[in-house]
Amino acid sequence: MRWFHQIGLVLLGLSLVSCGDKVKETPTAVSNDPQAAAEAEAASLGELPERGLAAHTRLAEEWAQVDPSTEAWESEAFTESISSLLKKGMAAWLVAPDEEAFIKVKKTLAETITSTALRPSALKAIYQTHEIAILESTAREMAPPGSNGFLEALTDLAVPLKGASDKRAKFKVKHVQQQEDTIEAHLLFEFRGKRPEGWHQITSVWHTQWTPAEPYHLGHVEVRAYREAVPSEGRLEFEDIAPRVLAGEPAYTDHLAYSFDYWRSRSDRSLVADLLGAQGLVVGDVNGDLLDDVYVLQPGGLPNRLLLHETDGTARDVAPDAGVALLDFCRSGLLIDLDQDADNDLVVALAWAVVFFENDGSGTFTPRDKIASDGQINSMAAADYDADGFLDLYVCGRDASGALKAEQGALGIPMPYYDANNGGPNMLLRNKGNFAFVDVTREVGMDVNNRRFSLACAWEDVDNDGDQDLYVSNDFGRNNLFRNDGGRFTDIAVEAGVVDIGPGMSAAWGDHNADGLMDLYVGNMWSNAGNRITLQDAFLPEASKDTKAQARRHARGNSVYVNQGDGTFEDATHVSGANMARWAWSSNFMDLNNDGHEDLIVANGMITTEDTGDL
Amino acid sequence: MSSQSPEANRTPNASYAYRKAWKALNTMLEEGRSYSGYERNSAFLNLGAAADGTPRYADVSGACGLDTLDDGRSIGVTDWDFDGRLDFWITNRTAPRLRLQQNRSVTKNTFVGIRLLGQAIGARVRLTVNGKPHVRTVRAGQGFLAQSSAWLHFGLPQDATITRAEVRWPGQSEYQAIEGLRAGQFFTLTKGQRNAQAWQAPQQPILHDAKPITPPSQRARIVMASPLPFPATSYQSFRGEARPLLTHAQPMLVNLWATWCHPCLTEMQEWNAHQAALNDAGLHILALSVDDVDAPLSERQQTVQRFLNKHALTLETGLATTDFLETLEVAGRALLDKFETLPIPSSLLIDTQGRAAFLYKGPVSSEQLLQDVAKLGAPDEARHLAAAHFPGTWMESPWPATPTVMIDKFMSFGKPTAAKRYLDTFTSSTDQRAQQDLSESYYLVANELRIQKRELEAIRAYERAHALAPHKHLVRLELATLLFKHRRYGKAVPHLAASLRTDLGNANTRKMLALSLVQTNRSPEAVPHFEILAQATPGDGNAHLWLGHSLKRAGQPDKALIHLRQALRILPNAELAANELAWILATSTQDEIRNPQEALIFAQRALESAGQPRAGILDTLAAAQAANGDFAAAAKTATHALKLAEAAGNATLANAVQQRLILYQQRQPYREPSAGK
Fold first, then answer.
1. Average model confidence (pLDDT) for chain B?
2. pTM, 2 dp
């Protein structure tokens, strides 16, 4: 097959209209206001309202298998129902306390509701610096009983964000358990907003009890792990300045400002054929001025962009002149000096090939070599593994190529889900100099455990012996830690304690505890749905305990491993406070506040569309 | 026989439900449903490790403004503005696809930035700050699909003192001291040198204001990079006749319009005004009305005719049918990476080979049409560039036109026949990728046909899939399995043999192969396979039975006896084993093998197991009786066998029994050298 991850079935959606009142005038003048122009344009086009022609029955059956609102997953139906109640009621009221939301809040509550204070008194700082204070309380005082008492408690909860802008409140249902006459649910609560002194964040866990049948009413709330993160004298603050750094740059205003789905909806399938929108970026200097430039990878039909850092802090796309405006489907790249001439050359991963470009020193590139891959390429990482002075390249090939699958009779989907080893092969490409590369995967001993669905890799000297070891994060299974012994590699993930079975999405080295040893942060998925479903009896009823545990582990979130200095790592995930990082993709170390401790940032979210019924 | 055959419909059935679940998930995603979406990006502040070294983090995502709801993907860290605070670039699936998160934190902490010059990937810098080690490595590739800055950044508390600074260059195991670092500044360091050089970052002026972004529009002119044939369908004339949509005589514009749609009228009037030029260009325009498709023909005809007359439109028009709209839907989803309901008007420009070459969402001018018609015959390279949204360079060409997705879309409508018809008319290029995808399509069709229990048709589709991509073993295996199931053993053998070669451990394939060999009178060739099967599963009575059976025919009665006896021990009622055993013991020419008494016992046992008299078993019993010298009984039994064989129409057996009957009547036993009947 090809590089699409997803070949889907179809549901008929095209439908027709019979009413005659749709006639609208085409705008005659071009407006300077783009919003108005777009609205006018949208109005000018006729629209076919939704009315399914004929949904095929088999498709419906297949939907039923995964549609959370069907009976098979009882907790999912309940979750959908109360998520909606909480979203339109309490969460909406906390953001904008209007009448509509208030009525919904009241509808959510049982008359006899009891609750602890939703914002406990006696908050104490457990951490305070110039930038931020983190406040907690262990008090569990009760709110006045009844729905009026609860509404008072809710009003108290809103106080810290009074007058804030950019407010957002959200409940996520983590755990659901049916008891005899009540349903217990654990809700993760988040509430944030921006006040003049900086961003405020409230998080807590609500242990709730609900009436057992629809319409569900909230009967009891016990707030745990209440925490506020608030500005101190200074603050933590970030703002997206790409629109200003790239002001007037068509690469941004005409291209990157629009979503992946926008471009997919106007692209021949042969150009993209992908749903994930996983395109990476490279930060590096292409013209020797020591200013970081950015190379942005793009799917097929859209050129990669080379954003050159100007001395005034702006950036402009020079990809066409630089010879790197590739239109092919790309995922990742690297800017590294491959020929020891003190400029950064460029490596670009097309779907099924690595292309090497030579930099002439001024930031103009010429293709020099291309190496095909039997795995669809995701992340790459470079290091001089054999200490010959030339940078070598490790390439993650996630999905097996059609040819490989054909040869080996392998199916394209991961088998088994929890421990798949039928993906594409990864490659270690040794740099022989003069842009000649050779695949040495087998001869260096890396051809073991090498059919994983690898998404990410990162080199680091794990054992402080001066050579570069490699960690590989694999989707649907076990990760690798290749120890380098003089240019030969051994997978020591098991002995080192970093197998991290799970949907490995990213790999990062850094120092969690500032002891000078390099630790690991592995991106995985933290899934509420996964946590809920895997705890149910209906989930894999035939499966063994081990299989279920492995499946559950797939939803546990990012992993924190601490290097013990003796070749092993301690799994500090659950005590670290850094595991619940959502459906994580790139997860990386970065000191946010210059206190010398490496903090963590995580890019996440799988697929967001305008559809509100998140799976 | 059926009870002994391996589970005939084997295939990757075990995984079917799992594959189905994947497909259902993909379907939902293709349908535009969110999946773990609306998840905010996260940031965790390092609070400093506990005394025992356990890391402690606090979620500050909302406390620093980084908790955007983007579908974030890749992160590249850099101090972009050289203000000593780390910023980062991040790519998203959602809009905008790129952000630069500028760090505007207010802190009294400071920093030092170091850039190692020369090949420094893998180099480490270690600062000792307030007695504690701070280590940073220069890396190329970390996180996901990302490379961060080569600048090393050390955050430093305001009161911190750097008591030591060291560097370890790649390939070295020793650290060397660095001199001259000071907080709050940037430095470069060249390999071999001890002194870091202060580096002056450019002054950063105030940035311009952002330019407004035009909200996304529904309108689009989509150039197909790898045009696919539009599936056969029809529309309705005003007289109610179904007419084929495509004539292939000339380039064709199929337009969707409605009387209630004002932009449609404007568009049609403009075409009308330029009809001569459009005609000259050879373009055939067919405007299909989508007004109330479910209404009676006369009503539809009237509505449209009145409208055309009123506006004096002379374009060729027709009525869109449900079949046409369904086909358009299938095709639209196959042609575009993300199908969204088409606006009215929309048009499709189809070339003389019947391929969808351009798709216009919203109105298109006659001028644009003239330009695009002129491009229909353009070489691939030009089309690939035209299909891109911005100028650029292709390193490789886009994927060639393949019918896979079209087929897949047909499948979801449960229309494998339409799918196969589409495939049969599909002329694939010689591009290997295209051949492979065509094979893949036949494979999908075959699977679907099989699910619908149309297995003979499925066999033909698998055969096509195999012919197009002979190296695809999954196809071969599925084909072979079906052939086996339908008792086309001779045809199945080569496919099973090839499948087995790629998956030697697959016992089921081996069983099917061995049994097919037996069925095609190639029992000797089956011996090694049954040996492996019997060895792998010593408790499998059937393996021993068939091994014995084949060994006998391979001229090894002594070995055959061992396995037949073993089979009987495991399966005491296996009549075939008892029968074969009795036959060898009764008729062997070798004295050391022949055992008439035992032969009689086994022959009777076979008869009992069978439950009713059968010609083959009676034949054996007769041979055993003759071997024991009881020729009268033998003749009687053989006569009975003869009648049954004749009644069953088994002339070969009847003939053989007849010959033996003559022997018994002459008071002679029957002997056969080694091989059997």
1. 90
2. 0.80
